[in-house]
Design goal:
alpha+beta
């Protein structure tokens, strides 16, 4: 399952995290304060052969993904077979997010050991060669690799994405414009990709150098509000350039599925503490900018 889908509803108990439920397109005034600006985190992880530290063999990867799919419902496959993603449900409680991600990391590591693999979080794989990667057999990923060719095959990177619910979803484009100057700071705080193809790059964060080869990546265009953004998406889809807005891979974007503003600039952080710190800062920035339109 993907984040924020088919999650149970329930009552909110005092001093406890509210039960996860899908993001709703309602106003902040209609909701309890503790459920405003809820967030969700998606982390991408690499898989490595436990002996060589390089790209695992296909049989080991197939066994790992089958076991992870059977035992960890919040884990799912990514573009490469040597990747896996974990996500949290919508929440207003960082202690809950820590428990979910910590459990996912531990669960994935345990399954990996059974298949003589390692799981780790980083923006780039230190030793894996892009030419040895196999892509996941999924329509979206097969379309990407077919259309992007070498650029898609070279994308051996892992990121961390943070969704923050916005009370007025129509205001997300304005928030994107105003929060864009903070993306370099958030990238620097998350930087965890100093190696590429077995070489030290001299940079703390090399991931965006690789991902920057992808079209429609980097900083988003400046839009004059939601209507201007929607017109841009209509033109792009009408021209056949993209199937939908989820193929806009900017460092920050309005989510297509949820009423959230999605941060995408961050590396996958090796430390869970760093993941939560970056997510908390992004949530605070969204909340501040939304409540202070004069900033």
């Amino acid at each position: 399952p993907t984040p924020f889908q088919r999650l149970p509803r329930g009552r909110v108990r005092r001093r406890a995290a509210p039960p996860a439920r899908p993001y709703a397109r309602d106003t902040e005034q209609e909701r309890p304060l503790e459920t405003a600006y809820r967030f969700g985190i998606e982390e991408e992880y690499f898989l490595a052969d436990a002996r060589t530290r390089g790209t695992p063999r296909r049989r080991a990867l197939e066994g790992f993904h089958a076991a992870a799919g059977a035992h960890l419902p919040r884990a799912e496959r990514e573009l490469l077979q040597s990747q896996v993603e974990g996500s949290t449900p919508p929440s207003a409680d960082f202690a809950e997010a820590r428990a979910v991600l910590g459990g996912l990391r531990a669960g994935l590591a345990g399954i990996a050991r059974e298949h003589r693999l390692l799981v780790f979080a980083a923006g780039t794989h230190p030793t894996a060669r892009w030419s040895r990667q196999s892509h996941t057999a999924k329509d979206r990923y097969e379309t990407l690799t077919r259309e992007l060719r070498l650029v898609g095959r070279r994308s051996v990177v892992c990121g961390m994405h943070v969704h923050v619910e916005v009370p007025r979803p129509e205001g997300r484009v304005d928030l994107m414009n105003r929060l864009m100057p903070f993306t370099p700071l958030l990238l620097a705080l998350s930087a965890a990709s100093p190696f590429w193809q077995g070489q030290e790059t001299g940079l703390a964060g090399y991931r965006l150098c690789v991902f920057g080869e992808m079209p429609r990546s980097g900083l988003p265009d400046l839009f004059d509000g939601a209507a201007d953004y929607e017109r841009f998406v209509r033109v792009m889809t009408g021209a056949g350039a993209i199937p939908d807005a989820s193929f806009l891979w900017w460092v920050v974007r309005p989510s297509l599925k949820y009423p959230t503003l999605e941060l995408r600039v961050a590396d996958s952080c090796t430390s869970l503490d760093h993941t939560l710190a970056v997510a908390a800062l992004w949530r605070c920035l969204v909340r501040l900018a939304d409540r202070r339109p004069d900033l």
